[in-house]
Write a structure and sequence with these properties.
alpha/beta, 210 residues, 56% helix, binds thymidine-5'-phosphate, 8 helices
Length: 210
C-alpha cells in the first residue's frame, strides 16, 4: 500500500491572492515530483459545486446562518468522501483552496456562531482528518476587499462589511497562534515575488521534515 499523501490547505480573507499563490505552490510541489490533486471549498465535487453556487449566490431571503454552516459541512462531507480521502489514501498530495479553518474564521469569528458547534461538526464530518500544513495569506481586509471588488460583482460573502472581515482575519490569526506546528502565516501585503519567496521557504521546511 502506498504511503498516505499530505494534505495542504491555503487560507485567507478576500482578495489575498489565493489563486495566484496556489498556482505557485502547485508548480513548486509538482516540480519536486509530488503527485498533486488541486481542489477547493466549498466545491470540489459536482454536488459540492452546486452547494457552492447556492452559498455564494446573492439571494433574498438569504440562508440562515445555521443553514449556511450545514451546507458548508454537507459540501465538505462529499468532498472528503469523493476526492480528499481517496487521493490521500492513494499517496497523492492534496492542495485545497480553503477548508475547515475558513469555517472557524467566517462562520465562527465572522458570523459569531459557536466554536463548539463547529468543532462538533468537524469531528462528525472529518473524524481524524486535519490538514498537515495550512498556509495562511494574511492581509488587511481593507486592501483585500478593494482587490476583490475590482474583480467584478461581489458574491454574497464579499458584500459583508469591513467589521466582518476584521473578525475573519482575527479568527484566522488566533487559530494560527494556537497551532503553530500546522500554520504558516504569510504576509500577503508584499509584492508577489516576495510572497512566493515566503511560501517557498515554508514548503522547503515542510518537505524536508517529511
Ligand atoms: P473563495 O472566495 O475562496 O472562492 O471562497 C468562497 C467563499 O466561501 C469565501 O467568501 C469564503 C466562504 N467560505 C465560508 O464562509 N466558509 C467556509 O468554510 C468556506 C470553505 C468558504
Amino acid at each position: 500500500m502506498s504511503e498516505r499523501g499530505n494534505f495542504i490547505t491555503i487560507e485567507g480573507g478576500e482578495g489575498v491572492g489565493k489563486t495566484t499563490n496556489r498556482e505557485f505552490v502547485a508548480d513548486w510541489l509538482r516540480a519536486r515530483g509530488y503527485k498533486l490533486r488541486i481542489t477547493r471549498e466549498p466545491g470540489g465535487t459536482q454536488i459540492g459545486e452546486q452547494l457552492r453556487e447556492l452559498l455564494l449566490r446573492d439571494q433574498s431571503p438569504a440562508p440562515a446562518e445555521m443553514t449556511e454552516l450545514l451546507l458548508i459541512f454537507a459540501a465538505r462531507a462529499q468532498h472528503i468522501a469523493e476526492v480528499i480521502a481517496p487521493a490521500l489514501a492513494a499517496g497523492e498530495w492534496v492542495l485545497c483552496d480553503r477548508f475547515t479553518d475558513a469555517t472557524f474564521a467566517y462562520q465562527g469569528a465572522g458570523r459569531e456562531l459557536s466554536t463548539r458547534s463547529i468543532e462538533h461538526l468537524e469531528q462528525l464530518v472529518q473524524g481524524n482528518l486535519r490538514p498537515d500544513l495550512t498556509l495562511l495569506l494574511d492581509l488587511d481586509p481593507r486592501v483585500g476587499m478593494q482587490r476583490a471588488l475590482e474583480r467584478g460583482e461581489p458574491d454574497r460573502f464579499e458584500q459583508e462589511d469591513v467589521a466582518f472581515f476584521d473578525r475573519v482575519r482575527q479568527g484566522y490569526l488566533t487559530r494560527a497562534a494556537k497551532a503553530p506546528e500546522r500554520y504558516r502565516v504569510i504576509d500577503a501585503s508584499l509584492a508577489l515575488p516576495d510572497v512566493a519567496r515566503q511560501l517557498q521557504r515554508e514548503l522547503e521546511v515542510f518537505v524536508d521534515e517529511r
